[in-house]
Amino acid sequence: MLSNAGRVVCSPLFRIGIHELTLPEAHRRDFDKLPDHICTGLTVHFAKRYQDVAEGVFG
Q: Is 53:59 a contact under the CB 8 Å cutoff?
C-alpha cells in the first residue's frame, strides 16, 4: 500500500534533492489518499506503460 510507503518515501526524497517522481498508474488512487503536507513540492507523474516513462525522461 502506497499510503504507508508514501510517508516513508517522500520525506527522504526531499533530503537527497529529488523533487520529481514517476509512479505506476495503479498507485494513483493510493497516492491521492496521502495528506497534502506529506508530498508538498513533489511533482508526481503516473505512467501506464514504460513508453510513458521514456517520453517523460527522454522527451
A: no
This prediction's pTM: 0.70
Q: Sketch the domain layout of the chain as residue ranges.
A: 2-58
> C-alpha distances in angstroms, 52 versus 1, 24, 42, 46?
23, 10, 19, 8
At 20-59, the pLDDT tens digits run 889 999 989 988 888 887 778 888 899 999 999 998 888 7
